[in-house]
Structures
1.
Amino acid sequence: MPLCWRAAVLLILAAPTVARSQEPEARTTIGGYGEVHYTNLAGPHTPGEVTLARFVVYLGHQFSDRIALRSELEVEDAKVEGGEDGGEVSIEQAYLDYTLSDRVTLRAGLVLAPLGIINELHEPPSFNGVERPGFDNDVLPTTWRELGVGAAGTLPVAGGLTYRVYLLNGLKAEGFSAAEGIRGGRQEGKEASFANPSVTGRLEYGRPGLKLGGAFWYGGSANQDSTLGDAAFAAPFLVLSADARVDRGPLTLRGVVARISIKDAEEINARFGAGVGRRIAGGYAEVAYDLLHLLAPRAAQRLNAFVRHERYDTQTAIADGTTRDPSLARRTTTFGLSWKPLWNVVFKGDYQLRRNRAGVSEEEALALGIGYQF
């Protein structure tokens, strides 16, 4: 072979090696979280119940300095067995990030809706109380994730201002209900129909000890049901939420409010008998204080005494032809302790008073729990 051809072949073979050597070394990250709950409804003849509520494995991979994978696999209630109620294996999130700059990261896959506090930040050491707030089940349905594309990053207009905005699949109105609002309409990444798209976004302002956020979701829910319409945003619903977190040494405060408007609730109820409200609204406020700060101000451990009060109604306004259920106007007060020997390990105990406007099926419950993340 002539010398010039040999040189050309050597250059071609060497090129991939040179290109790879310029990329940073790929990194894989493994983490996760889990929690165990013990619950005992008040009463002398009520047995307690204990369950491994969640076991979640986080897997991330940094393909390059620009491209990364984020994912979570969750097992609920310890196991899933055919013929038995309860238990679930699900993907909580799985998406690729492509970082263009500090201002813009493109994102595609199964992403968490950026609404409220708990939906994106739901690891057990990150919140007080054994269970997540009921508001985050019935109003903002945690854990809410859907498929789509979007972007996240920072805004230059003010320091500490970040954003997330996504185009995602819509919900299915056939899953809406009076008691849990839009929760049953989520598609959660399983053969999700994109007949009706949704747009969601969040602005968040952060400073040391302070976070303020506002978010929205607008989308259709007809899912090609001709009785509800065939437009892109047929059977629309709008979610608006705002939240605040304050951390001042031993004192922490947090609060969330949300409102959901379902324009065609009357047609949805006539079609599916859902009884869903035309408007759903509510929120909660929580205050916590680190008791260990009184005895040892420099201690790394925390013992948070907290109280949280929730008020929400999934039938704040009803559609014509729907009978209001006053028991859906719920009030829940939770008070208890969270001991954190480390920032990512927590032991919890609380007592909960569950009330409603109808005064029926009201309960009180003692709960104990442990949680971790890594």
Note: Residues 52 and 262 are 35 Å apart (CA to CA).
2.
Amino acid sequence: MSTHDWEGLERSPEFQELVTQRRRFVVPALAVFGAWFGGFLVLTAYARDFMRRTPIGSFSWAYILALSLIVMTWLIAWLYLRWCDRHLAPLADRVNHEEERR
């Protein structure tokens, strides 16, 4: 049974590049999600009259914004999967290849 040098792998330049690239997507996506969700919570707490208005039929702004949170979450997940296939998967393959050579 082989043992792996996990600390060595973590210090490798390939793994560091993988972590850096992942953060390039995750941090902005988290900021967008946090701002959108936080804005929704603030509007829900302090702009009740606005949230009661019905701009589309019987749908209030509260329903529209709540549904937009669901759509935004799925959109971020879809974009992350596409981004990973293009950017992270090749880097992960390089990390695996370098680890197998050790």
Note: The helical segments are 6-11, 13-46, 48-52, 61-101.
